[in-house]
Amino acid sequence: MISVVLIGAGNVATHLFKAFSLSNQASVNQWYSRTLKSIEAYKTQVEITDNLSQLKDADVYIIAVSDDAISELSSKLPFEDRLVVHTSGSVGIYDLDKKLKRGVFYPLQTFTKGADVDFSTVPICIETIKKTDYHILKQLGQAIGSKTHRVNSDQRSALHLAAVFVNNFTNQLYRVAHEITESKGAEFDILKPLILETANKVQDLSPYVAQTGPAKRNDKKTIKKHLKSLDSEHHRTIYELLTTSIKKTHGTSTGSATKRSITKNN
Amino acid sequence: MISVVLIGAGNVATHLFKAFSLSNQASVNQWYSRTLKSIEAYKTQVEITDNLSQLKDADVYIIAVSDDAISELSSKLPFEDRLVVHTSGSVGIYDLDKKLKRGVFYPLQTFTKGADVDFSTVPICIETIKKTDYHILKQLGQAIGSKTHRVNSDQRSALHLAAVFVNNFTNQLYRVAHEITESKGAEFDILKPLILETANKVQDLSPYVAQTGPAKRNDKKTIKKHLKSLDSEHHRTIYELLTTSIKKTHGTSTGSATKRSITKNN
């Protein structure tokens, strides 16, 4: 049984608390928040505190607070040489105070406030300085059903950055699609199966192989028609940039007519 | 039982043929292709032809050829006043020859060559000039298990354009993410659950509500770090444009620190 002290009261901390509570290989000894009120609802299930000097012993301390607060919080911990991890994709491992055994336990997933999280769909990227620390964090990830991945700092940064593209930016494209359909009185809902299938497709195929559409086959007529029908200058800029990007990837800046029939859809 | 003649040998025609073959409410009387060879594999299952003058009677003729070929093909059909539809998102209904009863039967989904299609996940957008033609096309869509949606030309154009954003452009963002992870020796596969969850999330929430991340919370420090770590000028341009787009949508051009903790993840 791996014992944990949770530090922080946000989304990640709350989802981790619930997952650890359901696990029989990990348990939360204590939960710290600067504002006790934010975790008061859990006080029948776990010891809560707002006093760092009263932190209990544990195998792993998990700091799940906003990126900017991690470093300072770690320096205030009233002990040395214990395993302390943060959960951020973008904060360095060396931003944790050097008196500690340092690590990162980064769940690479988007969490919805209120909705339950199935950690079997949450890959956890683990970074440690010492190999023995890695093993305990790997066990901790497995204790909540997650797949764990050992990464170095560069890889974690790359994953965090790439996650912005596949999550935030992709979601913004959904938003633009919503604006486009709404402006013509069409239902955004009709696009939902396509959204799902687009995500499903790259579970098995590389995005390169999965690509279709007017930009890939350099279908100038359709591209022109689309640009003309976009009312928003901003939407046009996005359309042009991503069309250029696809052409760049697929070398179709000078497309041939024969390619057209092969890649017909969308 | 609705009888169909299929015209064309591409991806859409082939998937429709398979779906109609499985249905007990629709049947394919004949399949036409300019090049008989491309549908020869099906000749034991259906009558095939490469001669337009030999087309048989049917309730619906489905032209599933490349966009540029639709208009000319329709004008070559050796009959009048029969229901003829094309399957394109972007070609006008009036591009079909006016001697015909004209319609559009547009499956709004991405098809993978070779992979089977479950038409229950394929919304079909139907456009007709006459209401009676609409009803038969609706039945035809239902015969293969699809949900059908009546749309007008503007709505269909908007959906086709929006589909490019949620399918082709989204897939290109996956591709950029692949390039970013690969360049640092990180596994793209770790992003796959996030890709799926991002698509899942907007099945229930609007993209506006589903948004998270540094751009939404105007986290300048992370944005700056990301831009610095992007090696490709092209990737930086995409990052900047979509960050601006998210800020525009969420009015976070001048974000406040208090928003930060609420929207922590990614």
UniProtKB/TrEMBL annotation, chains A, B:
InterPro entries reported in the protein's UniProt record: 6-PGluconate_DH-like_C_sf (IPR008927), DUF2520 (IPR018931), NAD(P)-bd_dom_sf (IPR036291), P5C_Rdtase_cat_N (IPR028939), TM1727-like_C_sf (IPR037108)
Name of one Pfam family that matches: F420_oxidored
Pyrroline-5-carboxylate reductase catalytic N-terminal domain ranges (all copies): 4-86
Segments crossing the lipid bilayer: none
Domain named DUF2520: residues: 122-245
PANTHER family, per the entry: CONSERVED HYPOTHETICAL ALANINE AND LEUCINE RICH PROTEIN (PTHR40459)
Designated name of the protein: Coenzyme F420-dependent NADP oxidoreductase-like protein
Native organism taxonomy: Bacteria, Pseudomonadati, Bacteroidota, Flavobacteriia, Flavobacteriales
